[in-house]
């Protein structure tokens, strides 16, 4: 099996004397208003107004996202100074995350030993951990099989003005985001249902998260016929991964459910080649569950949580499930198959049924489910659909704090008719191309019972075709930060 480059793990710690300590680069912020924050003001005073002159001459600007790398004129302290433009808007958690990530990526063109990030003076204390998370996120890239990677993580990243608690929290969340991104970025020959579960066993070894794996025989015994049908065309058998985190007490758990189609050819409803290229990302929902469970364990969250990953590979063979098939799901509901490329919802039918039998008090599922959601909302916004408005509001609030854009789509009763079948209880596609993200959610709603539930369609933001200053192309780790925050603050 291929071995990818390890996830970068710089030494992370705090620092106090940023101007006298030898370092490769000192990172500091500047708003569009142009007044120098304390770190830059101190450098300016030591250099007879050097930075002030550069600002006045327009050589350094505070435009959001603009990076200016300068060679320090001093013989001691940092060799280089990177001035990060922070713009004129709110100095919130999302900007903190984005600024730190962009700075680390800007400096990754060569190997650097020590980078000091002194951005905390520009942000409120509640955003300081996001600086750490962003810096770690900036270290991960999609070129995990290049023998000479183009981006190099620093050996050490030191944070000025950030408490040890914020560093620890930021590190836990940042490493969790990167765990998710790495799982998604791995090729499908490396990540398939069985190997996904093996990765999970390794990730959670020695933690408070217990791992349970249902193999093909267990899936048969449990009546998970929908999941087995999707995986029938592949030589790689399906798996169900259950991750339990118990904080103690008798309160019912929260459930986080992820679609884990490790490669989606479309089955007999075969995708064109260009539509298959990125289909290693079709397990991003399951990978997000792993990242979230990793994060809540590292943070010691005081909530009982169970994660469920429905894992299958949708391939083509004589054993593939067929158009016109009727499948009896684990719950007993029957599905008419009208498109084998609408397979994620079929896998989730059984996965959600397993989840509700553990009687969660609330449940969220994540899936790269529909191109229709991308048509509706674009590639950077996740769609939300729910049977419980209060729960949806709580999650939207958490996503808003973390700066991960989401938008709620309606779940009117009139959409129920769109997934009714003439020969079975329901069909796995709606009526043509209209309202496809919603009809997919309406299909899933058949398997959640009375449990308060939010469905998150991450088809757009989970995987990016192109790089941005704050992150590489490929897997984004979207919703890991928001879900951790929602779980921490949940009072459902």
Which tags fit this structure?
492 residues; alpha/beta; Leucine Aminopeptidase, subunit E, domain 1; Aminopeptidase; 2 domains; eight-stranded mixed beta sheet; six-stranded mixed beta sheet; 15 helices; 19 strands
Per-chain topology:
Layout: E1 11-15, E2 23-30, H1 38-46, H2 50-56, E3 67-71, E4 78-85, H3 93-106, E5 114-118, H4 128-137, E6 156-160, H5 164-185, H6 193-204, E7 209-214, H7 216-221, H8 225-231, E8 239-245, E9 254-264, H9 273-276, H10 284-299, E10 305-314, E11 326-328, E12 334-336, H11 344-356, E13 362-367, H12 371-377, E14 382-386, H13 389-402, E15 406-408, E16 426-427, H14 436-445, E17 453-457, E18 463-464, E19 474-475, H15 480-489
Parallel strand pairs: 1-6, 2-4, 2-5, 5-6, 9-10, 9-13, 12-16, 13-17, 14-15
Antiparallel strand pairs: 3-4, 7-8, 8-10, 11-12, 14-17, 18-19
Query: What count of helical segments does DSSP give?
Result: 15
Strand percentage: 15-25%
Sum up the overall morphology in one term.
Answer: elongated
Superfamily (CATH H level) name of the largest domain? Zn peptidases
The third-level CATH topology of the largest domain is: Aminopeptidase
Reported for the largest beta sheet, the result is: 8 strands, mixed
Nearest-angstrom radius of gyration? 24 Å
What is the SS-derived class?
alpha/beta
Poorly predicted regions are none
- The number of E-state strands comes to 19
Helix content: 25-40%
- Terminal Cα span: 44 Å
Give the tally of structural domains.
2
- Mean pLDDT across all residues, rounded? 97
